[in-house]
Amino acid sequence: MTINIYDDINRLETTFRKTTEYAAVEKAVTEVKADEQALALFKSFRDLQMTLQQKQMQGEEISGEELEYAQKTAQLAQSNPKIEQMLQAEMALSGLIEEVNRVLMKPVQSLYEGI
Amino acid sequence: MTINIYDDINRLETTFRKTTEYAAVEKAVTEVKADEQALALFKSFRDLQMTLQQKQMQGEEISGEELEYAQKTAQLAQSNPKIEQMLQAEMALSGLIEEVNRVLMKPVQSLYEGI
Ligand SMILES: [Ca+2]
Ligand SMILES: [Ca+2]
Fold first, then answer.
1. CA angle (A47 as vertex; B101, A58 as ends), nearest 5
2. What is the Cα B42 distance to its own chain's centre?
3. Is the pTM of this model over 0.80?
4. Mutating which of A3, A16, A56 best tests the B interface, going by the most B Cβ atoms within 10 A?
5. Chain A residue whose CA is closest to B90
6. How far apart are CA A100 and CA A88, in angstroms?
7. Does B114 touch chain A (CB under 8 A)?
8. How far is B19 from chain A, CA to nearest CA, in Å?
9. Which of A77, B50, B67, B71 could, after both became Cys, cross-link A45 (CB 3.0–4.6 A)?
10. How far is the CA of A88 from the centre of ligand 2 (A)?
11. In this predicted model, what pLDDT tens digit does every residue of B16-28 receive, in sequence order?
12. Angle, CA of B84, A103 and A50, to the nearest 5°
């Protein structure tokens, strides 16, 4: 690993934290944190998601009831405007990170062309 | 999205293609491509993996026999020194991309601290 790439990664990270996408997530998280109701709703949504993900990774079965409850919790969370705003801001920021991955993967994929 | 971040992403990509990790994958792929036996072995390994991944994504069942055959194909492929070299080089390069993701995800995760 050359030393240079860390300079470029760190420069990218500095710019990343200055994007409007990053600022939007920061603002949206602050607003959820300041709203007791939104915060409680988001926490229960996220904790439930984590529990289900863990079950899935461990190959445990997820019952229809559990799934239905999870969907209702997700719907409830998303019906809160502050949480909805935060999830949308997250998605836009994830899009930026995905773009970085696409740009880096492209030359790697081209190495495998013809295989 | 600010225009700046694309400059930084492109600069990172240019440096990325100059790393020893990238050069190692390029060299390893060239060597596999030039070796008929290694190439055929790698293709059958990769095609089988893709088929199984697709089945998994579509929720189709993968039989014990299929799994056993996939494991044997993987073992056979990895016992080829040129393929083994290529897979190790790939892993090292993936490590670089993962590092980029870690650096970018860190400030995002810190936004959620206390939630
Ligand atoms: Ca409220
Ligand atoms: Ca040979």
1. 75
2. 14
3. yes
4. A16
5. A108
6. 19
7. yes
8. 6
9. A77
10. 52
11. 999 999 999 999 9
12. 80
Chain A positions in Cβ-Cβ contact with residue B18 (cut-off 8 Å):
2, 4
Helix boundaries (H) for chain B: 4-16, 20-33, 36-57, 64-78, 81-111
pLDDT tens-digit map of A20-52 = 999 999 999 999 999 999 999 999 999 999 999
Instruction: Please provide residue B34's backbone torsions phi and psi, each rounded to the nearest 5 degrees.
Output: -80, -5
Domains of chain B in start order, with CATH, are: 20-111 (1.20.1500)
Let me know how long chain B is: 115
**Residue B52: both structure tokens together:** 């199984």
- Indicate the residue of A11, A15, A93 with minimum beta-carbon distance to B108: A93
User: What number is the ipTM of this complex?
Assistant: 0.86
